[in-house]
C-alpha cells in the first residue's frame, strides 16, 4: 500500500448487496451525500452477482436466468449515479474521529493495493452472510463445495462446477442452486432436504402474509420437474467418497426427530456435491464497533437494531442479513429504512414497516422449519477434519474435552489451533460450537431449550442442536 486519500460523506454504506444498494439510493433521495463501498467488482453482492467486466466470454445477459427479481436490481442500480462508488475496495477496519467515522479500505482497482480513508458522519453496515457448514466424512475432498460457492461460479463466471451434481442440506436456497445448475447444463441427480415439508403447516400465518414466496418456490419446482430432478425430504449426506476428488456420496433418511434411520444408506455417483445448511451473518465490522447483539431464531448471533435499523452505537445503522438471515426482499426493505433514517428523514413510510414485519415473520418461520438436524456430531470419526485451515481433526477436540473439566472456544483455540487459520472460524465455528457442547438457542424445530449465551469462536458465534436434545412435541 503506497498512498492515502481522504473524502467525507454524510452517509457511507458498506456492502452493495440488496440491503446496501437500497440504503445508498434511499439516503441519496433523502438529500445526503452518500458513498457505497464493496469488495466486489460491481454492485449486487452475492445475491445479484454478475460477471466481472473482464470475464471473457460471459455476459450479464447469459446469466440473467440465474437471478431472481432483476427488476428490483435494475431499479436500485439506476439510482447509483448520484452515489459515490468504491468497488474493489476492501474494508479492513472502522475507527472514530471527532466528526464521525473513519472507514479504512484497501483499493485494489489498479491491480495493486492502495490505502484509502473515507470519512462519514453516519454508517450503514450491510455486510451480508456466508454459507453455514457442518463437517462429515469426506467433506474435505475436492468437489465437495458449499451451495453458495457453486452458485457463485455460475453467476460470476458462467461455470458449471460439475456435470453430475447432488445438492444437499436444508433451506429454500437449495432450490435455486439446483434449478440454476440444471438450466446451465448439469445433471442434478437429486436435492436432499433434511427438513420435512409438513413443518410449514404450523407456519401458515407467515406464508399467507408472503404469498409471493409461494410463487417463487413454485417456479423453482417447475424447473426441477422439467428436468426430472428428484427432491428427497428428510434425507442427508452422511459421507463423501473418492481418491483424489469426490466420486460418490452416501445418503441416509431421517426420522421425525431428525436422526438417521439405520439401514437406509444409499450411494450415489457424483462429481460435485453442493451442501448448504443456511447462512451465518457476517458481523466482523458491527462487533468491532461494539454493536449490541442477540441470538436469532436459528441460533445465529445477529445485530440488535431498533424500529429504524439503528444499532446500539450512535450513528451506526445495520440492515440485511446481519440483523437476521431473511432473504433479499427483507434486506431491501431494511436497507430502505436504514438509508432514509441515516440521511435524516423525519419519518419512515408505514408500508415499509408493514412489509418488514411480514418478511421477518416469514424468515423466522423458515428458520423454524429448516433447522440443522441433531446427531451429526455422533457420526464423526476421530480422523474427520473439523478445522480445514489448521487441519484439526475431531479426535483432537474430543481428547481435549476428556482431559479438561472446563472447555470453551478459547481453550480449544489454544490447545488445538482450531479456528486460528485463514478463515478465522468462518467455516468451522458452528461445528466447533456444537462439538464443545454449546446448547441450542431458541426453538430449532427438532429441539426446544431456553436461550443460552452463544459461544464465540474467532469471528463466528453460534449455537446448535445436539443428539441429546429432547424430541419435539408431536
What would you note in describing this structure?
- The chain has 474 residues and is an alpha/beta fold.
- It folds into 3 domains: 8-130 and 280-348, FAD/NAD(P)-binding domain (3-Layer(bba) Sandwich); 133-277, 3-Layer(bba) Sandwich (FAD/NAD(P)-binding domain), CATH 3.50.50.60; 385-435, no CATH class.
- Helices cover 27% and strands 25% of the residues.
- The protein is built from 12 helices and 25 strands.
- The strands form 8 sheets. Strands 1, 2, 3, 4, 5, 6 and 19 form a 7-stranded mixed sheet that branches. A 5-stranded parallel sheet has the order 8-15-9-10-11. It has a 3-stranded antiparallel sheet with strand order 12-13-14, with no helix packed on it.
- The protein is globular.
- Mean pLDDT is 86; it is low at 1-5 and 439-474.
Structure described in brief:
With 474 residues, the protein is α/β, with parallel strands linked by helices. It has 12 helices and 25 strands. Strands 1, 2, 3, 4, 5, 6 and 19 form a 7-stranded mixed β-sheet that branches. Strands 8-15-9-10-11 form a 5-stranded parallel β-sheet.
